[in-house]
Write a structure and sequence with these properties.
The protein has 9 helices and 11 strands. The protein folds into 2 domains: 2-79, Dna Ligase, domain 1 (2-Layer Sandwich); 90-236, Sandwich (Jelly Rolls), CATH 2.60.120. The protein is elongated, with a radius of gyration of 23 Å. The protein has helices at 2-5, 24-32, 65-77, 81-87, 90-93, 104-110, 169-172, 193-202, 204-239, and strands at residues 10-12, 41-44, 49-52, 115-119, 124-126, 134-140, 143-149, 152-159, 164-165, 179-182, 186-192. It has a 4-stranded antiparallel sheet with strand order 4-11-6-9. Strands 5-10-7-8 form a 4-stranded antiparallel sheet, with no helix packed on it. The protein has a 3-stranded antiparallel sheet with strand order 1-2-3. The protein has 241 residues and is of the alpha+beta class.
Length: 241
């Protein structure tokens, strides 16, 4: 078993985030040093799954029998939503277009900078005119971007899983230009401006591809807007003849 897994990376959940991937010998040293205990969550890149350390065949021999039972009971109880949604299911993050090309280990590290937000139907995620300090990525559900003019609603666009909004606030912290309301119960990923600054400082290898992917999407939006503007002008000129 050791020979088969020595080249595989492992990540340890350390309270609020996962550590950088390490190899099996390092993980074993951490067990002996009690940095990893029987009930510690460990991610194995080989099968892309999180387990309690005592559930891993590679580590089971290190834990006395009296430590196994309570740890196994905790394993049956599961983990917090933050850990379960993001750490256990990295593929769910690939629904978001700007994260679709990230590797599993990158997604797990990126998750350290995000929060999970659940939104009820007709709840407003952001309000027009309020100061922004976070961007959001849609994992599940559906939302609409609307503007209120003379108390009348105009829907600008509908957001579905994979879309994101509020990204400008990561850079200028300015007022929101529109309101975003949930059409149905939705699950979002939130990254605050502060978390983004931490990413730039602590994980530039994640921030760079994230910014590049976001820039590609924004460029496509600008091109589409320019085309609509150009078509509207041509229509107006043609109609005026």
């Amino acid at each position: 078993m050791k020979e088969a897994t020595e080249g595989v990376g492992f990540m340890v959940w350390e309270g609020k985030r996962a550590c950088e991937p390490v190899k099996l010998p390092v993980l074993m040293n951490w067990v002996e040093a009690q940095r990893v205990k029987a009930d510690t969550w460990v991610y194995a890149e080989g099968d892309a799954a999180w387990r309690r350390a005592c559930q891993m065949p590679e580590l089971r021999m290190f834990f006395p029998r009296h430590e196994m039972a309570p740890a196994m009971a905790k394993a049956g109880a599961g983990v917090s939503e933050q850990t379960a949604l993001i750490a256990v299911q990295p593929n769910s993050l690939r629904r978001v277009k700007v994260l679709s090309e990230f590797r599993d280990d990158q997604l797990l590290r990126f998750a350290n900078f995000m929060e999970v937000v659940r939104v009820r139907q007709e709840d407003a995620v952001v309000r027009q005119g309020e100061m922004g300090d976070a961007m959001f990525m849609v994992l599940e559900g559906e939302l609409r971007v609307r503007m209120l003019i003379n108390n009348k609603e105009t829907t600008l666009v509908t957001l579905t899983p994979g879309d994101f909004f509020g990204e400008i606030s990561l850079f200028d912290h300015g007022p929101r230009s529109a309101e975003v309301v949930a059409n149905k119960v939705s699950k979002l990923l939130k990254i605050t401006a502060l978390a983004f600054q931490n990413m730039l400082r602590d994980a530039p290898d994640l921030a760079a591809p994230f910014l590049f992917a976001m820039a590609k999407t924004l460029t496509a939006r600008i091109r589409a807007d320019n085309k609509r503007y150009r078509d509207a002008i041509n229509f107006a000129r043609t109609s005026g003849k």
